[in-house]
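Cross-check.
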Amino acid sequence: MVEDSGTDEEIPLPNVKTAILSKVIDYCKYHKDNPPEEIQKPLKSTNLVECGVSEWDNEYVLFELILAANYLDIKSLLDLTCAKVASMIKGKNTEEIRKQFNIVNDFTPEEEAQVREENRCGLSSKPVEPLDARSDKAKVGVKMLE
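Predicted model, tokenized:
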């Protein structure tokens, strides 16, 4: 972008922290001459390396990178970070996911009952089921859970 304009003007990126932008730049530099492989979807394993992700990428992913990749429109980085999250929750029930991400259940019993009714598959005590029947409604990351 800066090269195209022929100036050295700063480009404000208020939604991306400096440390995260540094990681995005590292990712882009690494993949400039080493394009990332397409991530297999649906995920066949909770191990991303078994799904076509390089060891470098597997060790690289962080949650804030999802926001930065989305904001900066870097599709391959967004796919990688969403696949990492999908691999972390695949096959887990609600309580296991809460434990994995340190999520406190602050719903009242009534609120929880209402949410469970509205989103039966989303707050099930069973592992996440495949989404084949709803694939037209699936979004990035959710489709990877099939």
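The helical segments are 2-5, 18-32, 55-60, 63-72, 75-89, 94-101, 109-118. Confidence is low (pLDDT under 50) at residues 131-143. Passed to J.P. for a second look.
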